[in-house]
């Protein structure tokens, strides 16, 4: 008998209005089940990063409720949240002067006491796990003691993935993880991320700019525009017409707005694209 998948992330009526009046999120409802690779797609300024930051607690919504693994964020300590939710960043966010090993081990910090963290003392099991993940992401033993900043972009993102998986997270948030990488390396990195998440049955919410990658890797595509969800469905449903509507007159992040086409209807309400 098939079971209804557990909802791992649940956003209910999330609003975010920044101090300058910018409305970044407008009544966003989103439920992401356990184990899903959910891609957030949309033009620059659509609210993708703001949404991801709502899930990891870095952005306090103006209104609405965020739940992760059944816990409401306002009632959850940062430490509890960090054990469940890991983040992968566009610009890797590594300590570039520290070793690759130290960067990966830093993913275990929410589980380590301050005194031990200051001395750089990690459990042998944590060191073993760091080695396991470094191997898992395709880095070699000789990389362990190199400074992270000396690695290529693709290698740095591999370190970022290994770090993110150190605490067996239930949720991995990836904010444009391949934006600065070339197409083949982007595919390798997304394959790694998807496979590593599948091994743990972890939920991934990944913002992307590349539509082809969203279609290839997403179990589901959520299209955002002007702070609203305007498409939510399977990649097969996200056809070129819907793509056109999502990006109509929009900024692709390269400063080149797409031209409106006369036959392109106005955006409809969520799910109605
Ligand atoms: N700290 C802030 N203060 C004021 N406005 C902000 C702040 N952070 C984001 N915004 C605004 O909120 C809106 C959504 O931004 P967000 O970064 O979430 O978009 P995005 O879809 O991730 O864009 P991109 O693809 O370019 O990264 C934008 O209008 C942005 O300028």
Automatic annotation (TrEMBL):
Q: Which organism is it from?
A: Marinobacter nauticus (strain ATCC 700491 / DSM 11845 / VT8) (Marinobacter aquaeolei)
Database matches in CDD domains = ABC_PhnC_transporter (cd03256)
GO MF terms here are: ABC-type phosphonate transporter activity; ATP binding; ATP hydrolysis activity
Query: What is the membrane topology listed in the Swiss-Prot or TrEMBL record?
Result: Peripheral membrane protein
What region holds the ABC transporter domain? 9-251
Where can this protein be found?
Cell inner membrane
Query: Any keyword Kinase?
Result: no
- Put simply, this protein is called Phosphonate ABC transporter, ATPase subunit
């Amino acid at each position: 008998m098939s079971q209804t998948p557990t909802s791992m992330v649940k956003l209910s009526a999330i609003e975010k209005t920044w101090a300058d009046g910018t409305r970044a999120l407008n009544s966003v409802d989103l439920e992401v089940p356990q184990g899903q690779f959910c891609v957030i797609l949309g033009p620059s300024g659509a609210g993708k990063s703001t949404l991801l930051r709502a899930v990891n607690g870095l952005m306090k919504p103006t209104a609405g409720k965020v739940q992760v693994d059944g816990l409401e964020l306002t009632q959850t300590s940062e430490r509890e949240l960090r054990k469940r939710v890991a983040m992968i960043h566009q610009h890797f966010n590594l300590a570039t002067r520290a070793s690759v090993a130290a960067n990966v081990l830093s993913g275990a910090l929410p589980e380590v006491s301050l005194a031990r963290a200051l001395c750089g003392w990690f459990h042998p099991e944590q060191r073993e796990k760091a080695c396991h993940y470094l191997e898992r992401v395709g880095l070699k033993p000789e990389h362990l003691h190199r400074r992270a900043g000396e690695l290529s972009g693709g290698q740095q993102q591999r370190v970022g993935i290994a770090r993110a998986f150190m605490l067996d997270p239930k949720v991995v948030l990836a904010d444009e993880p391949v934006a600065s990488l070339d197409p083949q390396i982007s595919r390798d990195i997304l394959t790694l991320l998807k496979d590593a998440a599948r091994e743990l049955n972890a939920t991934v919410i990944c913002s992307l700019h590349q539509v082809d990658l969203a279609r290839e890797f997403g179990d589901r595509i959520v299209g955002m525009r002007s702070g609203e969800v305007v498409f939510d469905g399977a990649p097969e449903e996200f056809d070129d017409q819907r793509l056109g509507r999502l990006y109509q007159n929009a900024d692709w992040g390269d400063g080149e707005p797409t031209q409106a086409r006369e036959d392109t209807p106005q955006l409809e309400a969520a799910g109605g694209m």
